[in-house]
Amino acid sequence: MEFLQSLVNSLPGVLGQGLIWGLMAMGVYITYRVLDIADLTVDGTLGFGGAVCVLLTVNGVNVWLATLIAMLAGMLAGLVTGLFHTKCGIPAILAGILTQLALYSVNLRVMGWGTSAGTQATLAVSVDKYDLILSSRYVRDWSENLINNPIVVMIPVTAVVVAILWWYFKTESGSALRATGANRQMARAQGINTSTATVIGLMISNGLVGLAGGLLAQYQGSSSVDMGRGAIVIGLAAVIIGEVLLRGHGKVLVGLLGCTLGSIVYYFVIQIVLRLGLGTNDLKLFTALIVALFLAVPYWKGKAATARKRSVNSKEEKNNARA
Amino acid sequence: MLELKNVSKTFNPGTINAKTALKGLNLCLNDGDFVTVIGGNGAGKSTMLNAIAGVFDIDGGSISIDGNEISRKSEHKRASMIGRVFQDPMMGTAPTMTIEENLALAARRGRRRTLAWGIKKSEREHYRDQLSRLGLGLENRLTTRAGLLSGGQRQALTLLMASLVRPKLLLLDEHTAALDPATAERVLELSDQIVEEGRLTTLMVTHNMRDAIEHGNRLIMMSEGRIVLDISGEEKRRLTVDSLLAKFSRAAGEDLLTDRVLIGA
After folding, report:
1. Does the pLDDT of residue A320 top 90, yes or no?
2. B109 touching A, CB under 8 A?
3. How many contacts (CB atoms, under 8 Å) link A and B?
């Protein structure tokens, strides 16, 4: 009973965090599912978005503008990975790792902007001093600071992002991007510049992750250099959980909504295992194993189906031979 | 209209796997030519089509369409002039996208892809008409994903996509080889129909000698990266499998027996 009680108490936090990470998961969905490449830039991009957003905010920039610039910063990171990949011929996964590594240094510099050392691993932004869009402090606040309640903020933000993405993927340009991910050979034969499409996809994806980073930094009251560590795995977890729950069969709108749902479910499961006694330091191990399991299941299913087919065929052959 | 001059291509040069696929290839197509291409495995048929389409850069020589040199242009730029159907039915369509979305992609070949809506309402009627010409019932399945279609249906759809925006040149690369005989026959009929209606200049690679003889107005045979036979007009109309083999043995000589087996005559 006490267990359930505390679980229910954690629900607002689960929703707030899940909604923010849902945007991040949409970024992962766009590269991993729509574009069919694994982009590891995002681990660095989340921290980049956070660092840029906090730096600008503490220097007096309007917080909405700062959040928007965090998104543009993410798009810039995606552009770099895209150019590494398409202009320098570096495999996509490696291009992402390179940008991610470079961003570690960049993020230290961004957060250390104006300090004597020039680098800094965390940068705080207190909701008492700055007029933040949202904060985890107000996650249960349904009256006084309602408009800064993360849940109240994130639902319309998510809706707007999903609407824009859904519209984009229905345009000529967005269709070309989807075709590039579905069949590069065919896309080129139909006159689509697959390099450009790939770069655009990486920019949109990382823009979303940068935006999520900016919002997450406000939510937790600081940005830190390793806030994005393992983000790709959490994003993947959300994408896969969403797919299992919604079965969109490749429909983009369903896929995007699945990201938010999957992300919320992911944080809910995390709350349960934490309350069952798992240490916070073991969370990454737990997450990695869960994602590995979910990725392995379709593979095993495929193998089992082939094996079944083979045994049916050999039985038929035996029967035919007898006849 | 299409002119290949002294085109050469070697894959993996300087390695133990070096393979000279095209060796000083020359070919000139007239407007409206429907040329069938035959030859044994490794003769360079598909390599020639891929060189024209820009799948890889050629080592030397020139390729031009209507007098414009295209051998330095990227594959997607050349696509504005060239329609293609591949051997593998999976290669011509985007499996996760619907039939109408695939057609809409093809309808924008050679145009800038903007932020305008991907399919306009008025297009759907047009697609329905075009699909009904295939006689496969696809006109009622506009929102079916291409991945759910059979190999023959996909090849027919790819054929339609390749000709939706009239190409200056149509490249058919053994596009019926992966289909069962009845379906292959139907797709070939459709190819004839589409080529004829659009008066399209066409290169069709085939493994089947009879198909090569029965279709098109001109036949070329390749061996070792070159064209060894070029038959057109009345001579082409009077061709039989046996007379073609006799001609080939005079032209190419040595490899006849192996090639005869490979071609399956």
Report:
1. no
2. yes
3. 84
